[in-house]
Predict the structure.
Amino acid sequence: MRLAPYQSVDCFDEMFAPDGQPRPSGKKFVERLQTLTEGSLQQRQKAAEISLQNMGITFNVYGHEAGTEKVWPFDLLPRIIDAHEWEVVESGLKQRIHALNLFINDVYNDCKIFKDKAVPEDLIRSSKTLRQQCQGYQPPQGVWCHITGVDLIRDRDGQIYVLEDNLRCPSGVSYVLENRELMKRTFAPVFQGMSVAPIEDYNEQLLKTLLDCAPEGVSDPTAVVLTPGIYNSAYFEHTFLAQQMGVELVQGTDLFVEDGYVFMKTTQGPRRVDVIYRRIDDDFLDPKCFRSDSALGVENLMEVCRAGRVTLANAPGTGVADDKAVYAYVPQIIKYYLGEEAILPNVPTYLCSEQKQRDHVLGNLDQLVVKPTNESGGYGILMGPQSSQAERDKCADAIRANPREWIAQPMLKLSTVPTLIGDQLCPRHVDLRPFVLCGKDIYVMPGGLTRVALREGSMVVNSSQGGGSKDTWILRNGHALSDPHFSPAALEKN
Amino acid sequence: MLSRVASSVYWLSRYVERAENVARFIDVNYNLTLGETDTLANQWAPLVYTTGDQAPYEELYGEPTRENVLKFLSFDKKNPNSIISCVSLARENARTIREIIPTVVWEQLNQFYFMVRSAASEPGLMDQPQDFCERVRLASHMLVGATDATMSHGEAWHFSRTGRLIERADKTSRIVDVQYYILLPDARDVGSALDVVRWSALLRSASALAMYRRQYGKITPSRVADFLILDTQFPRAMHFCLRKAQQSLRYITGSTAGTFQNLAEQRMGLLCSNMDYTSIDDIIDQGLHQYIDGFQKQLNLVGEAIQDVFFTPQYQSQASSTQTQSQTG
């Protein structure tokens, strides 16, 4: 097929250099694309959409009729990343998760980082995601954040930045795996021989991570996935992961606590559970410990967890490290625990809790993106340059009333990837969420979820707001990627 | 396996089987009424009796007309036993247990659901429902086939089979009861007003005509009843269904033949052994309708016991979770 003039304006395009030539990483792919007959890309895109519908790959949208499923929007053109660049990302992510893990453990135990004044204590103490109930808790293997989804973006300058750490219940990995499967089904001739790093062992790695962190002394641990149920927006993912790992998918009502252990109700009587990959927020885990009105969780679950008789992944309280105000300190956190500079930079961030920075934010609201520190999913954000005076005034009042709750960042221009819109390739903005598993080792999935804003010019990539997704290819450049595992000795109890 | 999952897999099968049976009923009745005189052309009431939903039907539509009955049984979401309701419920159950069903089974059910949903808005479909009924029957068979061919024949599969066979036994008993009653109020009246067309239609609604012919040749009422009630080799016969369901329960609990470990197995065993040692003459002597009525009551008790024993077990310190699905009809 002929590639019509394609031009990305004022930002970094992942596939094409500013002179219109494909970048080295995309060269082979673009050549193959050109050998396709006219219309065949559209045909394959259509086939992919039918497949998605038949396979029932859907997500639920809140605020619609209960149980409304939408088919996962998928674009056939992949995002391609070169192996050498990926090696940097991979080691940066390992470094980051390693440090965050040590940080969380420290926060709930020795508090050395406060005593050494590397991070202000009151900032952490005032975090809404700090869980007093976890004070003194020591999870098996010292692991708090078993599963992390880190949001990365590439700015105009070509640099990859960490935008956000998602340490609570990050979603999306099932779509990464399904996207790949779909690519292979519908786009085989283009996929073949491209030497794309495989991601198919993620489920195996996840199971291993969970079992590695079972309570001590359990020889043949039983792991389960705990879901809030069929109306949760990520329900598809919960079933997918349980199925792929071959473990039970349980709801709160399937579990109960007795004699200090957690059991599930089976047709053959109670059966003990050792590891729970919970996809329920902290607040809903245990009505005896957190919110008493929660019907999703299990009574006395936290007691069993604290006694070391069940492992929760991620551990309750990990959210303290994805507070966006704490995010600003991650480079210092890395430095403090590992004595290294951060490999992956943060997006410059202004903390409204600091007076000087707050003044700067209040004086430049029309140029900044202001975010609440504790929301996820893109809620409550002010996009300065696109906002009205009234919105900015309202935001300024909110910041003054509660400065701790707000941060601000410069408006970034996300990079673009060619995307099939109608019968044309058009530049559309993307981000990337790789997934990191932390057990006895740290594993980084090669690639991750590339989310794409399907509307022209939009940088909103959330699927609930019309975003789509793409397959992410990490090219191996003819050699295998570095060993995906390493054993950070410092993860052992220090 | 999880009690909740066992319940879902059981009901998933029941609902699919129910949808298939409703499609069979519609198909056969439609073919029967074609070319009949006016009185017989209006024989749509028995169809509603067969599914056991006459009360909700009367409330929604009043008199049974062809158009309304077809609508009620196929696409009316207010009828919990319509084809579309059954397939939706089956899919909802499947959605809660996707992690344990093979992907091909889920995809098959998913396509089944989309097929029924889009059929509901096809104009003129109900003027000629045969094609739709055929699609439903095939979709159900594909699902059962995919399940048998790709799912480990372990506990979940046995719960699935139990659900399907209990549903099927119930529906076959309704076919025999209603049609037999209408065709021949007194089974002793052999030779009085035998209408071979209608008797073959009855067999056809259970896909049993060809198998019956091989077994008995000529059609006689008591043999038809014998075949559909007591045959141990025909897979839609009541006796066959119960024997296989009993085997599945034994697999689940590990009980040996002739023993039981819980109320579900006990009731199932009683019902089965009664069928093992009865004959069609005994049944006709006691009254066919009475026999079927008793059978359905006992089958319902078996279903309730399965619910209590496996799906809502009582644990000492925990209130039981209650099932919201109920068996209707």
About this structure: The interface with chain A takes residues 1-6, 92, 95-100, 103, 106-107, 110-111, 114, 155, 159, 252, 310-311, 313, 315-318, 321 of chain B (CB under 8 Å). Confidence is low (pLDDT under 50) at residues 190-194, 316-329 of chain B. The longest helix of chain B spans residues 3-33. DSSP finds 16 helices and no strands in chain B.
